[in-house]
């Protein structure tokens, strides 16, 4: 039972990242009809927003500490972060320690701006082009962004730790008498993903802006005839989708140290998630994300790998093939989407 529950938690943890990226992909496809293969790069940029904030907060100034000397008795030079000089050692160290959560405040405007620039500068020219053209141009954009990150940050992963208070483990099974130890930050990430997903659905369901967007997704021409600038609202949704992917990347940095190819690592899997859930279906993308995350977690167990070597690498694709054979539109796909 302990092992079973542990794999469920592992699956929900990994599925949270899949669901968040797939949610953004589906938002863009559902509103603009664009298959955005650069969405994984937005996840990567979000992760490097956290890296940038950490590097900025740890910028230091060299000072001479007369209380510390070398073996010859000469005063030593010590590096003190600027934030410690500005706010004092206690508050300064706390700010540095919580750099990842604080990076959310930095990432939101950055990701929205990146989304706007991407949509207005490039993707809007491909709305009426075939999906194959959209895939090629956005995949090329993803490679460009990946190489830009590699140029400025290097090719090696950059460790970005979670706050010390959230860097331990929690005994989740103590209440029911089970020995179930799990990292606190992974629990935080799952809760964060649920909060973001709930926020996006609530925004689309209960706000006037969201209702107009949903109406535009169903019948764009009719909404336009009512005098509503639906294109502007769709551009804003592109920015929101970029922010969702970016925030997923920010909070994932303590789990997987950011590197320049992490966007590609998640993109293909997340696109499979979108297809399995059903193109254009937001609930389907979220459901498929968590479902495939759990299946991948169980396929990574030792008995599964011994039974079928390499099953953990292909399980998502096998499940996708089976589901699409049974339900060609995916779990919750809509009729007519990408069927022309």
Written account of the structure:
InterPro entries: ABC_transp_permease, BCAA_transport_permease. With 340 residues, this protein is mainly α. The chain has a domain at 25-258. It is built from 14 helices and four strands. It has helices at 2-32, 39-57, 82-87, 89-97, 99-121, 131-153, 184-206, 208-218, 220-225, 230-252, 262-277, 282-299, 302-307, 311-326; strands at residues 60-69, 75-81, 169-171, 181-183. The chain is globular. The N and C termini lie far apart (47 Å). 37% of the residues are buried.
Concise description?
This protein has 340 residues and is mainly alpha-helical.
Fill in the keyword field for this structure.
14 helices, two-stranded antiparallel sheet, 340 residues, globular, two-stranded antiparallel ribbon, mainly alpha
Layout of SSEs?
Elements: H1 2-32, H2 39-57, E1 60-69, E2 75-81, H3 82-87, H4 89-97, H5 99-121, H6 131-153, E3 169-171, E4 181-183, H7 184-206, H8 208-218, H9 220-225, H10 230-252, H11 262-277, H12 282-299, H13 302-307, H14 311-326
Antiparallel strand pairs: 1-2, 3-4
